[in-house]
Amino acid sequence: MNDKKKLLVALLAMVSTFSFAQEKYIVGTDPTYPPFEFKNDNGEPEGFEIDLIKLIGEKENFQIDFRYLRRKDWKTIITNGEADMFVSAFSISPERLEIAEMSQPIVKIQSVVYFLDNEKK
Q1: Residue 112 half-sphere exposure, CB side, CA atoms within 13 Å?
Q2: In angstroms, what CA-CA distances link 28 with 1, 86, 92, 109?
Q3: Where are the domains of the chain?
């Protein structure tokens, strides 16, 4: 299975936990983390995760209402029902799983630290 299909399957699994009696889902996003999510020149959400959620909406026949919300407030936003889901390049943690369901990882990121090598000055 190619990577795009794996990503779609992972996100469909996440979204399938919702009751599809709803026709529209409110998706919170903090569009400050390109290429995952950002605002385009017209102020509309764009990015990798935005495209995936839109694709799922098309496949599962529901509409999406994006709301610009602060990422740091995601716990309150989800628990008080201000949004049905939140996309913002989250990593999975035990603390987050106590509050919300999460999809399988859709990307693997390896972080590194750069530093000056004094021997090569």
Answers
A1: 2
A2: 29, 4, 17, 22
A3: 3-120
Range 3-120 has CATH code 3.40.190.10: yes
Sign of CA dihedral 5, 78, 43, 105: negative
Strand order in the sheet with 85-87: 63-68, 24-29, 85-87
Q: DSSP label at 100?
A: -
For 32-45, what is each residue's pLDDT tens digit?
999 999 999 999 99
Q: Tokens at residue 97, please?
A: 């799983």
Q: Taking a C-beta distance cutoff of 8 angstroms, is the pair 11, 101 a contact? A: no
pTM of the model as a whole: 0.68
The one-letter amino acid code at 59 reads K
